[in-house]
Specification:
Layout (H helix, E strand, L loop, with lengths): L1 H14 L4 H19 L3 H4 L5 H8 L1 H22 L5 H19 L2 H10 L1
Helix pairs in contact: 1-5, 5-6
């Protein structure tokens, strides 16, 4: 569901020709707000635990789904911004995306599922 919502959001923004930086900023802020509402502790909000602990909590399938949503964001940036595809540009944008994934997005699907159970 999270991946589908992400794809729909970026597709609608692409067809409406919304500025790429604005789309990425709104998506990041929305994820931050959603996750801050769903979790009760700061460690869970920013995934401040060890990577192995976060992976054991989240699981393989949720990890792959949230990673796929981040790849959709990454490809939207590449397509929407019209940057030249070279290794330096890809790496420069990949580093913040991976940091965003590790500390914010990773685990949001399991947080949503836990919130729906309660």
């Amino acid at each position: 569901m999270f991946l589908a919502v992400t794809i729909i959001y970026f597709a609608v923004c692409y067809f409406l020709k919304v500025e790429v930086a604005m789309v990425l900023m709104i998506y990041t802020i929305a994820i931050s707000v959603i996750k801050s509402v769903l979790v009760q502790e700061l460690k869970s909000l920013f995934n401040l635990r060890k990577t192995r602990e976060v992976y054991n909590k989240v699981g393989f399938l949720n990890t792959i789904q949230s990673l796929a949503a981040i790849f959709v964001m990454y490809f939207y940036y590449i397509i929407g911004s019209g940057v030249q595809l070279n290794v330096l540009n890809l790496i420069i944008f990949a580093i913040p995306i991976l940091i965003l994934y590790r500390f914010l997005v990773w685990g949001i699907i399991s947080d949503i599922k836990n919130w729906q159970r309660n």
